[in-house]
Design a protein that fits this description.
Elements (H helix, E strand, L loop, with lengths): L4 E3 L4 H9 L1 H10 L2 E3 L5 H11 L4 H14 L4 H5 L3 H6 L4 H15 L13 H8 L7 H11 L11 H10 L8 H8 L6 H14 L2
Antiparallel strand pairs: 1-2
Length: about 200
């Protein structure tokens, strides 16, 4: 698991993206440095992705912060946590159920997160989506943030699609197919492109 994610506008990935897509290159120049420190623990990373589903980054960060100060983010603590406690920190009934279910899967050894390291991106996503509550978006986030895979397109992130649509001059969010098509030129650095689109969206660039 990667302890940090770091991009600069003049590093190899960013320069390759700028050469392949000048509009993206202009966005990268505006954003500049990206430095993130995602959870290195795979269980924590999965819980964080569940919390963040269909929420703004600010709201997700606030709820995860409350959860972290209320309970240890471990399979043991969350498997045995009272659902009322999880609801009090801001989790919906459904997300509380997902978190507890994933915690139980980790506890009984029914999910081997270490195995993901050896799998190709698509296979790792399929393995992750065996977990109830982990869909394509959560799997993409896990591969990008926890595994630091370099060529994952966050095509199911609504903020990424909105920023891509603005960059592409569409006047609306890009569709999945439009973003996938545009991102063919971004290989093998689609994760970096996704991070820059996320950062631009968060900053309002």
């Amino acid at each position: 698991m990667s302890p940090s994610i770091h991009y600069e506008s003049d590093d190899d990935a960013s320069l390759a993206l700028a050469d392949a897509d000048p509009a993206l290159g202009a966005l990268i120049t505006r954003v500049g440095t990206i430095r993130l420190s995602p959870p290195s623990d795979p269980f924590v990373a999965l819980v964080r992705s569940i919390v963040g589903q269909q929420l703004s980054e600010r709201a997700a960060r606030a709820i995860f912060g409350k959860l972290s100060t209320t309970l240890d983010i471990t399979p043991e603590a969350l498997a045995s946590a009272d659902e009322a406690v999880l609801r009090e920190v801001g989790l919906s009934h459904q997300k509380a159920s997902y978190v507890k279910g994933i915690a139980r899967r980790f506890l009984v050894g029914d999910f081997d997160s270490d195995r993901l390291e050896a799998l190709a991106d698509e296979d790792a996503m399929s393995e992750l989506m065996r977990l109830r509550g982990v869909g394509p978006w959560s799997a993409q986030m896990f591969l990008m943030f926890a595994l630091a895979r370099p060529d994952v397109l966050a095509v199911d992130d609504l903020g990424v699609r909105a920023q891509a649509g603005e960059m592409m001059g569409l006047g609306r969010p890009a569709s999945r197919d439009e973003l996938i098509g545009r991102a063919e030129a971004w290989r093998p650095h689609r994760s970096a492109a996704s991070f820059y689109l996320m950062a631009a969206r968060a900053r309002g660039d």
